[in-house]
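Each lists chain and fold; for instance:
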Amino acid sequence: MNNNKIMITIACVTIVLVILVPSIILVNTRHTEKLYNSTILKITEAGKKCVNEDKCHSKKIFLKELYDKKYLEKLVNPKTKQYFDENSYVIKKEGKYTFIEN
């Protein structure tokens, strides 16, 4: 009788873990992706603002330029946990701003 209770408990814990672990991984992956997209949007908006205020005149607006002109503080890539390369840039194509990561 006591062995049956232990087996049932082990089976229940196993089932919960089989469902819980992949769910946690999926939530973490989605969160990281949303955080990355939010960071990219922040960078492109800063580039757009710099152009609109006539402080950035080149086709490529490098992150270093945005940092130097105080449009952004140094940003960490949520995927790699390292700072974005300062040679990455925002470019305007057909009225749309796009971030190009190096």
User: Anything to note?
Assistant: The helical segments are 2-52, 63-68. The chain has one domain: 2-100. The first strand starts at residue 60 and ends at 62.
